[in-house]
């Protein structure tokens, strides 16, 4: 069994600035495989996932058709941790400039965010946000497992026996 995170831990983890991997059913492939793409996302504990994309992108078309998606965020450093959520799309709306700015500042330092926002300002008229209410959560935090494993390896290396 995976070492799952407590609710507050998984929500705090998801709220940290991580690149998410969005998965959505892809009807173009006869249901054989989902579309899975990295995305910037926004999340506050207890809230909804916010993803921005172009109004006419394949991603947007598939999100509309499916009406739900999954998002996974992970920590690639040791000990490995991840949180995955799945739920319905609750809203598609034109992107609010404040939401776009918050996403840019979430992932870029202040100077880079300002430059990015200025260089991509025309996207405001073409982009939309999709909001998702997390219904299903999956998580794992291997910190305790890693500590137990390290202790066992240290005991073996020292010649100690149980």
Automatic annotation (TrEMBL):
Please report the stretch or stretches of sequence annotated as the Pyridoxamine 5'-phosphate oxidase N-terminal domain: 11-139
Name a single GO cellular component: cytosol
Asked if the record carries the keyword Oxidoreductase, the reply is yes
Q: Name one GO molecular function term.
A: oxidoreductase activity, acting on the CH-CH group of donors
Gene3D superfamilies in the record: Electron Transport, Fmn-binding Protein, Chain A
Keywords tagged on the record? Oxidoreductase
Q: Which PANTHER family match?
A: HEME OXYGENASE HI_0854-RELATED
What is the protein name stated in its UniProt record? Pyridoxamine 5'-phosphate oxidase
Taxonomy, top ranks, is: Bacteria, Bacillati, Actinomycetota, Actinomycetes, Kitasatosporales
């Amino acid at each position: 069994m995976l070492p799952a995170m407590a609710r507050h831990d998984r929500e705090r983890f998801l709220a940290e600035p991580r690149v998410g991997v969005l998965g959505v059913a892809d009807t173009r492939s006869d249901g054989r495989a989902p579309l899975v793409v990295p995305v910037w996302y926004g999340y506050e504990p207890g809230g909804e996932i916010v993803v921005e994309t172009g109004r006419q992108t394949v991603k947007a078309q598939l999100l509309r058709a499916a009406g739900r998606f999954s998002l996974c965020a992970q920590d690639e450093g040791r000990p490995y941790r991840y949180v995955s959520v799945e739920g319905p799309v609750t809203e598609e709306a034109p992107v609010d400039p404040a939401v776009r700015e918050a996403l840019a500042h979430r992932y870029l330092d202040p100077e880079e965010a300002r430059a990015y926002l200025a260089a991509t300002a025309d996207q405001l008229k073409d982009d939309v946000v999709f909001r998702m209410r997390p219904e299903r959560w999956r998580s794992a935090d291997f910190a305790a497992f890693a500590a137990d494993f390290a202790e066992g390896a240290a005991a073996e290396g020292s010649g100690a026996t149980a």
